Amino acid sequence: MTRRQRLHVLLVVLFPAFYAIALFHNPAELLAAITALAVVLLLVANPPVPRTAPAWTRSLSLREKAMRTAHLRLRDPDAAGRPRPRAPGLGVPHA
């Protein structure tokens, strides 16, 4: 839902509250109601919690996952499709 749609729904829901303003006899009550309405509108228009994770969070989690899975291929060197390590030749000096 886009910001405009959320604001539209909120105004449709709170429209009867505008008629309730006539019920307030004290200016402090009216000010409190207007302040509460403004806070609700601001929170709906700009939610304080981001909907998606930042890019650095995703890259960090992918990097951690890659570090955890880096050793999986070393667990079974005789698995199907794995090339066998080459033995040293005769001309290679030994340590």
TrEMBL record:
Region Disordered, annotated ranges: 73-95
UniProtKB keywords: Membrane, Transmembrane, Transmembrane helix
InterPro entries named in the record: DUF6412 (IPR045635)
Pfam family, one: DUF6412
Keyword Transmembrane: yes
Protein name: Uncharacterized protein
Top-level lineage group: Bacteria
Gene source species: Umezawaea tangerina
Residue stretches spanning the membrane: 7-24, 30-49
